[in-house]
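Can anyone check this?
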Amino acid sequence: MIFKKDNLKLGLVLGLMGPIVGLVVIYFIKFPGISFSDFFETFIKTNRLITSIGSLSLLANVLLFTIYINTHRDNTAKGIFLITLIYGIGILLLKILN
């Protein structure tokens, strides 16, 4: 099972996928009436949405990180944490540059 492995590459992949899955879940829950491309364009161009939706999408990584830390799979957790920091910095830069 994927949760039993402990390596940095797995953490990096999970860290990349978590916020994307989170973003898709938010789209289906809050914005099902518009196309995903319109939703994504609005998300990228609206400062308020960058903060709120960006933070919510990162919660998927918080969940993954917690699972891997609590099961003592520290290398995978390091990868998830690293990608979460990169996403966070990207969200911050996107908000500043908008």
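Reply from J.R.: I decoded it. The mean pLDDT is 90.
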